[in-house]
Write a structure and sequence with these properties.
The protein contains 13 helices and 19 strands. The protein is of the alpha/beta class. The strands form four sheets. It has an eight-stranded mixed beta sheet, sandwiched between helices. A six-stranded mixed beta sheet has the order 1-6-5-2-4-3, covered by helices on one side. A three-stranded mixed beta sheet has the order 11-12-16. Helix 2 crosses helix 3, helix 3 runs parallel beside helix 4 and helix 9 packs parallel to helix 12. The longest helix has 26 residues.
Length: 493
């Protein structure tokens, strides 16, 4: 989607809409509008045509004094000081809904104090609303025979003073990059699992590398992983006719001497549960078990779009979990790349098995920090619902930084304890550890398992099981937590 920045209203503008924010008390914005335009707005407000509820809209047509054919009044309530970003996303949703079904091809936002309500600075508001507005227009039509139903979203135009112009352009570019990363994450998540296999993900990584000279791709096949000793990873992929692979996308935007940040994504392209098979109801949604991997793809794409001055390595553990005759059994003991052994008590706790070997493998990069992203546990949904991700790890500064970025992007996380008290739940009589820790604290014990493979670097774990996709009528991948991770990466530059 296109965006642009202007310093005065256009004298000619067909198929455009000017968004005018109206605060509580019917206060109008402080940017210059002709008196006859303001008079028409005041009449509509006096009549009570604009509802007195947050993000209510009222479209006025052919208002005197301006050539813009639509004037969209939006009721802006005071932003929540604890979660201002959420208010911006609701605003974007309200504008999109009001203009749906129209031929509007250009939305003009005047960046006045009424629209960009405190406490958000104007650039932060611009980044948020750009991301949210583009994301609101996302459509997945790739597997439909008829493609003509795809509608082009309108251009987003910011009316800003000269003193804000450069910062607004930069923020809008960032917002568009975030949205592009989210769209790739959504595309990969929504693609059918008979199409989106581990090999397909490897091909997508190669295509991404070809699009940007700073990105290189390495793919380890099963034979290579076997030689390395990645027994936990292979215990998952061995049950499928689709071979697993480890994919590394090495984006080098920083100095050669700069230690990279490594992002590790769980890429189980379909999860039946293996021999510990899942119930059939809703199993189609297990194509989303690779949304952690899809997030890594989206972040790399956003880094490329911004030419981010940072070294970021995106690593994807791609496998399919199937109940074949070669599949792992409950009771099997496997040896990980680290040399530690694992008793597999439940083959549906497979994500931690592909991740543990991957988390050991990424030590080779001598990373500044490692963040893994995974749809890891149903227990996370029980604990936190579908509102926020869980975050755990071995570095409080890293966890705090991710939480702050989540608050700034309405892509929130909530910390859970990673205490030694929980580690005993992984005890096994036949191996160094079991792959599950019992019925209590499932999200925590899954992170405890991963923590045994992350002792050599700062590490955080994001369990995104509750936020990676929506069910029901709005079924589809959400693109989270790309905005949070990109905001955090930008803070590291």
């Amino acid at each position: 989607m296109a965006f642009k920045v202007i310093q005065k209203l256009p004298t000619r503008s067909s198929n455009s809409a000017l968004v005018v924010a109206v605060s509580t008390g019917n206060n109008l914005p402080d940017f210059d509008l002709p008196e006859e335009t303001l008079s028409a707005v005041r009449i509509a407000l006096k009549r009570g045509d604009l509802e007195d509820s947050a993000n209510a809209t009222l479209a006025l047509h052919d208002v005197p004094g301006i050539t813009i054919p639509r004037l969209l009044l939006v009721r802006v309530a005071p932003f929540r000081k604890d979660r201002p970003a959420s208010s911006v996303i609701l605003l974007a949703q309200g504008i999109k809904k009001a203009l749906s079904g129209t031929s509007c091809s250009n939305v003009i936002l005047a960046l006045d104090e009424t629209l960009c309500a405190a406490p958000l600075p104007i650039p932060e508001f611009v980044q948020l609303i750009t991301t949210a507005f583009i994301a609101e227009h996302y459509q997945f039509k790739a597997l439909l025979k008829k493609q003509n139903s795809v509608t082009k979203p309108p251009t987003l135009t910011f009316l800003a003073g000269k003193e804000h112009s450069t910062a607004v352009k930069r923020a809008a570019k960032q917002g568009a990059a975030f949205a592009a990363g989210m769209a790739l994450t959504q595309d990969l998540g929504n693609t059918a699992p008979n199409v989106c296999t581990p090999s397909y993900l490897a091909d997508q990584a190669r295509a991404l590398a070809k699009s940007h000279s700073a990105t290189k791709v390495t793919v380890l096949d099963e034979a290579r992983m076997k030689r390395l000793g990645m027994g936990a990873f292979l215990s998952v992929s061995q049950g499928s006719r689709q071979p697993g692979c480890l994919i590394a996308m090495d984006y080098r935007g920083g100095a050669k001497t700069q230690a990279p940040i490594v992002l590790v994504g769980k890429g189980v392209t379909f999860d039946t549960g293996g021999i510990s098979i899942k119930p059939s109801a809703g199993m189609d949604e297990m194509k989303y078990d690779m949304c952690g991997a899809a997030t890594v793809f989206g972040v790399i794409k956003a880094c490329q779009a911004l030419d981010l001055k940072l070294n970021v390595v995106g690593v994807v553990a791609a496998a399919e979990n199937m109940p074949d005759g070669d599949a792992s059994r409950p009771g099997d003991v496997v040896t990980t790349l680290s040399g530690q052994t694992v008793e597999i008590l439940n083959t549906d706790a497979e994500g931690r098995l592909v991740l543990c070997d991957t988390l050991t493998w990424v030590e080779k990069y001598k990373p500044k920090a490692v963040v893994d992203i995974a749809t890891l546990t149903g227990a996370c949904i029980v604990a936190l619902g579908n509102v926020c991700s869980a975050v755990l790890g071995n570095d409080e500064d890293l966890i705090d930084a991710l939480r702050k970025s989540g608050q700034s992007t309405a892509d929130t996380t909530w910390p859970l304890p990673l205490w030694d008290d929980y580690q005993t739940q992984l005890d096994s009589k036949f191996a160094d550890m079991a792959n599950i820790g019992g019925s209590g604290g499932g999200t925590i014990t899954a992170a405890c398992f991963l923590s045994r493979f992350t002792t050599n670097y700062p590490w955080a774990h994001l369990d995104i099981a509750g936020v990676a996709w929506n069910s029901g009528a709005n079924k589809g991948a959400t693109g989270r937590p790309v905005p949070m991770l990109m905001h955090w990466l930008l803070s590291q530059t």
